[in-house]
Amino acid sequence: MFRIPRNALVFVGDGRKALFLRNDGDAFFPRLKTEKVFEDTNPMTREQGRDRPGRVVESSFPGRKSAVEQTDWHDIKEHRFAQTVAAALEHVVRTSKPTALIVVAPPRTLADLRAAFHPEVTACIVAEINKDLTKHSVVEIEKHLMDDSST
Hints:
The chain has helices at about 45-50, 75-95, 105-115, 120-125, 140-150; strands at about 10-15, 15-25, 30-40, 55, 65, 100-105, 125-130. By secondary structure, the protein is α/β, with parallel strands linked by helices.
């Protein structure tokens, strides 16, 4: 059965928001307290770039042109945000020395975080949970994590 140890760090994030929570309770009755919150303003791609997609002239077929897919600025910014919070998480792990680290994020963000995590951060991870809980309150996050731990 999975429990959240006392003084464990719980990271809850997605491509736009990240919460750093610490368990001030014990393994059986966790009490998560917010330590840091990161939020990124990430408007839709149409609001970040208004240029039309480019065109490419193919040299092997004179007079033929192909369209280039439009850059998804919104998606790029979400990937960069994951790298930013991974660096911040590295700093927190180095300075506060948590007993354990639990990472909660949707699958795509979790993949970005795994790629960006420093080995010191990876060594602290005791659980990874594929869920998007960033829109929930801290109390609701506690309930979700306890529900996951009983299964």
